């Protein structure tokens, strides 16, 4: 399978020489929790929707639904699971799942070391098992990369991590080095806690290929999609940026358990990310898929995440079609390498986001609600203008008034969220 690459512009990906928009579904618990028949059904549905990548935790997800069907390690003489004893049968099954996924055209994005497996992260400091000894970590990473490199995966070095000490950095930096020594063509990134920054040693490593961030599931932090998008796009060195964990559809507002994120919230987070610097792609998550929840199972993340939906119910949530439409729009209008253009928006509302393509020929504006808006554009230079009613998934021609350097859009017809596309 051909490997994904970073485009020369450092803003997006290419696959076999063509621009590639990363659209991943989040299924952290696949290796521990799915059956082969469930996996086949799942893959076919997400393939039908247009997803092209799958984010999977190679090890067990500490806050998933239990019991697990499989476990990556064998028990030691004392009856405890030991990270020194890899269970070959677990990885045989994981390899079978990856074979089925890649046959359907999905790129695996594999998390190597979720934060509970590394010392001095927020999770390991809370006593969530199990921190790997450094030598066991090295042996495990070598084993996984050797075994799975044939699938041309992305290797996500960390999962939901912060960097509590230099020892944390040492673990992750060593894992990054091992990946590139064994699979130099594989792209690498780090999945971070929303408030985390990349340490300088990792930020400037020649082995890091792109940035991801997590805008998260706390209602009061839903400005993070655009704030963190701007932050990571401004980092040096420049690399493609992906929001790898916007709010999950169906997930309660973190810790409060009041209400749940809806398709509208997901659309908002996705488009605000894409137009604020995270233009290389996005991940979607359904609350019940990532933890592979079965009816009646114990869900270990209930304190923060509330009760998940049963996985088949979560699979059918409507917002997945919205993010699939996002990929269609990016490809249809060739919106690769979008650059933030917030100075074009003549409004004080930061939730309205604007971006232009690298060549300046196309401008895109996201409106979270119907409203009149003025934009600093050369009104005589636009050959074509499209509107997209994101809730109804309908394309239309908006009413445009051009006044010299200003373009005005009158109020839109329904109480929905919209996208405007201006083409020179």
From TrEMBL:
Highest rank taxon of the organism: Bacteria
Name of a matching Pfam family: Apiosidase
Matches recorded under InterPro entries: Apiosidase-like_cat_dom (IPR025277), GH (IPR017853)
Domain Apiosidase-like catalytic: 16-332
Listed PANTHER family: ENDOGLUCANASE (PTHR37836:SF3), LMO1036 PROTEIN (PTHR37836)
Protein name stated in the entry: DUF4038 domain-containing protein
Organism per entry: Candidatus Caldatribacterium saccharofermentans
